[in-house]
Structures are given as structure tokens and as C-alpha cells.
Specification:
Largest sheet: 9 strands, mixed
Number of strands: 9
Radius of gyration: 17 Å
Number of helices: 8
Oligomer: single chain
Structural class: alpha/beta
Helix content: 25-40%
CATH superfamily: Spore Coat Polysaccharide Biosynthesis Protein SpsA, Chain A
CATH class: Alpha Beta
Strand content: 15-25%
CATH architecture: Alpha-Beta Complex
Shape: globular
Length: about 260
Amino acid sequence: MEELEKDNMKVSVITACFNSEATIGDTLESVASQTYKNVEHIIIDGNSKDNTLQIVKRFPHVSKIISEPDNGIYDAMNKGIKSSTGDIISILNSDDFFNNKNVLENVLTGFCSSGASIVYGNLYYVSKANTKKIIRTWKTSPYKANAFVYGWHPPHPALFAKKEVYDKYGLFDTSLNISADFELMLRFIEKYKVKTFYLDKFLVKMRTGGASNPNIKNIIANNLNIKKAFKKNNIPYKVYYPAFRLMPKLLQFFKT
């Protein structure tokens, strides 16, 4: 993978949204306030009917707005990646925001110091009503071979990848619905062994209550799609995988 000097790296932050007037202001503000300024912020809007676009247009740092019907959040993410011109891709959706103003500076330092093509860190889940209240703490760890098979994976909102990784290994598989981010990380990291670097910092805050919020229906659908993801990438799926996956998530509630 091509190595880049920090000052020459452009970051493309892609925000998918739909009727997000209640939350997108935090997302926009967190990007605008970053100390690292070589950023293009791309908004992929699903033809919102509320004031989402009016809020977006108040932020002059936004580089591009695409507003049209789409086929779901991963279709929107793919549109953003295709339209991006940056060296690094960040997916920061309208329920998410950077944890502090130094996130991109720290991430790019991680890319340059490690020579990795993927940098990822930790995630806070916060209350939808009060984003200062931490509900869950997702502190991940360095990748080890076959870690995905045993229930490990990074938090997708806190993962940053070089654009060339997407160009070489593909975009989100929209047929996998709420598990497409898992499949993409499985493909990049476990199947193709893209070099990663774990940045042990909390990079993103994510509101609870999103599309993959745990309930019986989502848990069943998610596990079925994850099984498909392993099969698609010719990686053995263990029958006890759901238990491996569930245990770390339960422990997250005790780390707040």
C-alpha cells in the first residue's frame, strides 16, 4: 500500500443521513472543530423531508451534498466512498460524532507512524437523550490472526481505512443489511490481512438506538447475516460463534 506524509493526507468523512435534524448538528460540529483541516466532508442524504439539509448548509466546511433516494444506509455509504477524493475514508453517520477535536490528528499520526492501511480505536455508546452519559464502553484491542472467528472485531464507526483498500477489496455488500459493516471488516482484515494499527484512544461517540440496536429480531437477523459473511469470504463459521460475540458485548456495560 502507498505510504503518505501526514500533511499531504486528505481525509474524506462520509455522513449518511435521513431525517436527521435532531442529531446531525453534533456530527457536523465535531468535524468542523477538528484541528486537522485537510478534510472533505461528504453528506449523503436519503432525500430528507425535515430540516436536515437546512442544518447541513449552515456549515461551510461541508464539501459535497448528495440528496436523493437510496437503498439503505450501506448504499449511501458506498455512494460517499465512490464520490470521495481523499486518501483516508472515515464513516461518521448522523447519530455519531468525534469524541474530541484531536481525533483526526491522532488517527493520521497513527497511519504515518505505523505504515498501516487501517487504523481503528475505541468507541463510546452514549444516551440518545444525553450524549454526556456513557451507556457502554467498547475498548477493543490489537488484531490477532483468526480473531474474528472468536467474536472479536473493531467498532466500525471508529475505523479509518485508506481509500485504496476500498478500491482494491470492494465496498459494502448491501445484501447483508445491518451486518454489511461486519462483513467489510472481516473481508479487509481477516481475509485479505490488510495491515492494521490499534490506536488506544476513544475516537467516536455513538448514540444508542440505531439500526442495529439489540432486540430479538435484530439479533437473529444479524447472526444469520454474519454467518453469510463468513461463508462469502470462505472463512469457517463456528456454531458457538454467537456466544463468543455476545460475551464481549455484555462486558462492555461493566466498563463504563
